[in-house]
Q: What sequence folds into this?
């Protein structure tokens, strides 16, 4: 029995994701696809447009066999944290053979070489990184430039490069968010000496950040914007798998966006005196938030984020910092998680009844408790694991409270919600 791992957000699920699941099974020769999926808050530093159970059901309807929740501290973290948490789950569940990730390039040798370089941090690379930072580059930009200069001298970086311009090829490779995540997956696999084999799957259709509803597959960004603008359904539905369209249309009645979280963020701005204990908030950023917090009240989430952005601190990091503030995700707590095991349980969001053999194999091979009944978490977990669970529980209940208040629907706790089981 072979199992392929997929790491995803599905925010929202679309035809490109269905293609990814099908291709992942095909090119890996897998019998089953296990998805590690972000919960109700995602890596962009925003809430997911649809709740985690809706996205789980869509994935199961399109070929996924098991969906496991990625703890929110990793799901809302940097690319490195996101990958670290997801790979830790795949490793410890113990049945995954391959990881197939979407990418703008399918040059596995280059993914691996870049991951090696980041793990080893040779002196030449470190010096260039420091030099670019001194010039005032943001950390992501400085890292990218240092990587380009270091990789350019390595002959293996030219594999699959037919353009003749190595620097341009590397710049394109390192400018893609999907590629950056792919590098971090490879890095985490190497760091943990994992037996899982990574395979990049070449994306086609609209780019990651495209907002155009066109092409064979559109981006999730375009769909989210279309949903928020209340675009005509004739524009959106072609990009939703046919089997998912009834659920998609129903879920449009309960969408959540970043602005829906503003009352909770404002509460933090009014009550907290310092913010530097929060993940992704440095002392400088904490002072900036303190100075701008009152003028920020009344702004949209995007305007708030834009006002806090600086030349050195990207908007993406600001978004994540605000979500960490919202959810009270503290640096010392995340450090404790990483030091004591990274992940401590596998929260099951859903599975297919056809995956009985997969579930049996996991029971025999996994060293993590499987949470299918949240009420049992307190008896199964302790210490850092219990703290992580409480963090996830709060994030889930906060998201649900927004849905309940915004749409006047009954509030259901996580304890009252069972995993999605596809017949």
A:
């Amino acid at each position: 029995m072979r199992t392929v791992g997929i790491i995803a957000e599905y925010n929202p699920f679309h035809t490109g994701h269905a293609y990814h699941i099908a291709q992942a099974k095909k090119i890996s020769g897998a019998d089953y696809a296990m998805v590690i999926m972000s919960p109700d808050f995602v890596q962009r530093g925003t809430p997911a447009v649809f709740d985690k159970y809706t996205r789980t059901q869509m994935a199961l309807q399109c070929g996924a066999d098991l969906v496991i929740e990625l703890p929110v501290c990793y799901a809302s973290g940097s690319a490195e944290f996101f990958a670290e948490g997801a790979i830790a789950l795949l490793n410890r569940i113990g049945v995954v053979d391959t990881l197939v990730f979407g990418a703008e390039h399918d040059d596995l040798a280059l993914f691996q070489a870049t991951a090696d370089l980041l793990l080893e941090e040779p002196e030449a690379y470190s010096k260039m990184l420091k030099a670019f930072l001194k010039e005032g580059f943001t950390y992501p930009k400085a890292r990218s430039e240092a990587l380009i200069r270091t990789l350019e001298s390595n002959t293996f970086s030219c594999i699959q490069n037919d353009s003749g311009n190595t620097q341009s090829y590397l710049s394109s490779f390192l400018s893609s968010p999907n590629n950056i995540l792919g590098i971090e997956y490879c890095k985490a696999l190497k760091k943990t000496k994992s037996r899982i084999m990574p395979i990049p799957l070449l994306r086609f259709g609209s780019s990651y950040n495209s907002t155009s509803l066109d092409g064979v597959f559109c981006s999730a960004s375009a769909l989210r914007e279309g949903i928020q603008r209340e675009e005509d359904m004739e524009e959106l539905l072609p990009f939703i798998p046919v089997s998912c369209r009834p659920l998609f249309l129903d879920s449009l009645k309960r969408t959540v966006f970043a602005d829906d979280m503003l009352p909770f963020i404002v509460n933090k701005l009014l009550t907290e005196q310092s913010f530097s204990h929060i993940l992704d908030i440095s002392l400088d950023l904490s002072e900036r938030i303190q100075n701008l917090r009152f003028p920020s009240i009344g702004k949209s989430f995007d305007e708030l984020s834009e006002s806090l952005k600086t030349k050195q601190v990207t908007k993406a990091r600001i978004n994540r910092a605000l979500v960490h503030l919202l959810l009270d995700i503290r640096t010392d707590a995340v450090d404790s998680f990483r030091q004591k095991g990274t992940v401590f349980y596998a929260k099951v969001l859903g599975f297919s009844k056809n995956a009985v053999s997969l579930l049996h194999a996991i029971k025999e091979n996994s060293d993590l408790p499987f949470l299918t009944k949240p009420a049992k978490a307190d008896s199964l977990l302790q210490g850092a694991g219990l703290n992580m669970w409480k963090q996830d529980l709060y994030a889930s209940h906060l998201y649900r409270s927004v849905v309940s208040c915004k749409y006047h629907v009954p509030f259901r706790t996580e304890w009252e919600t069972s995993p999605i089981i596809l017949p």
Strands lie at 3-8, 32-37, 41-42, 46-47, 66-69, 98-103, 197-202, 346-352, 370-371, 420-422. Residues 333 and 384 are 8 Å apart (CA to CA). The mean pLDDT is 92. The first strand starts at residue 3 and ends at 8.
